[in-house]
């Protein structure tokens, strides 16, 4: 199940599917705050994109972190290394999702932190600071 499972006794329950599972596979769901000179937004990185930048599956990261004595409620250093890095995001916004009364959903299609791509974007888009 790709939805949030809740741990109950020795089983895992999905409130959305209304089903019990005997085991689970850890997956990334990393909430990041993206800030530029114009505004800020919250994005969620899931497995495919997150594992590219952390270079480990969520399961491998969890096992190594717990083996080092990490607390399951704290954040591994590998995830904290994403802080203060520059990324380029390719996003999609569906106009039907835009509603003035609710936050809208921005889908991250791709992301990159390659210096050549970031530098090319910055050089082509000289952005003036907003006063």
Summarize the structure.
By secondary structure, the protein is α+β, with helices and mostly antiparallel strands. It contains 4 helices and 7 strands; from the N terminus they run βββββαααββα.
- Report how far apart the termini are: 46 Å
Helix share bin: 10-25%
As residue ranges, the low-confidence spans are none
The major beta sheet can be summarized as: 3 strands, antiparallel
Shape: globular
Task: Count up the helices.
Answer: 4
Radius of gyration: 18 Å
Which structural class is indicated by helix and strand composition?
A: alpha+beta
The averaged pLDDT comes out at 80
Strand content: 25-35%
Strands side by side in the biggest sheet: 1-2-3
- Oligomeric state of shown chains: single chain
Order of helices and strands: EEEEEHHHEEH
Pfam families: Rep_fac-A_C
Organism: Stylosanthes scabra
Domain Replication factor A C-terminal: 7-105
InterPro entries: NA-bd_OB-fold, Rep_factor-A_C
Task: Give a structural overview.
This protein has 131 residues and is an alpha+beta fold. Helix content is 24%, strand content 27%. Strand 1 and strand 2 form a beta hairpin. The longest helix is centred in the middle third of the chain and has 10 residues. It starts with 5 loop residues before the first strand and ends in a 7-residue tail after the last helix. This is Replication factor A C-terminal domain-containing protein. It holds the Pfam family Rep_fac-A_C.
């Amino acid at each position: 199940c790709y939805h949030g499972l809740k741990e109950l006794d020795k089983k895992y329950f999905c409130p959305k599917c209304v089903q019990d599972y005997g085991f689970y596979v850890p997956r990334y769901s990393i909430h990041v705050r993206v800030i530029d000179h114009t505004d800020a937004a919250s994005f969620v990185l899931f497995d495919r994109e997150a594992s590219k930048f952390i270079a480990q599956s969520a399961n491998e990261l969890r096992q190594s972190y717990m083996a080092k004595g990490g607390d399951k409620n704290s954040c591994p250093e590998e995830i904290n290394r994403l802080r203060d890095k520059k990324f380029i995001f390719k996003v999609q916004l569906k106009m039907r999702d835009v509603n003035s009364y609710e936050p809208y959903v921005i889908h991250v299609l791709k992301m990159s932190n390659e210096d050549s791509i970031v530098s090319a974007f910055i050089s082509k888009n000289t952005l003036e600071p907003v006063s």
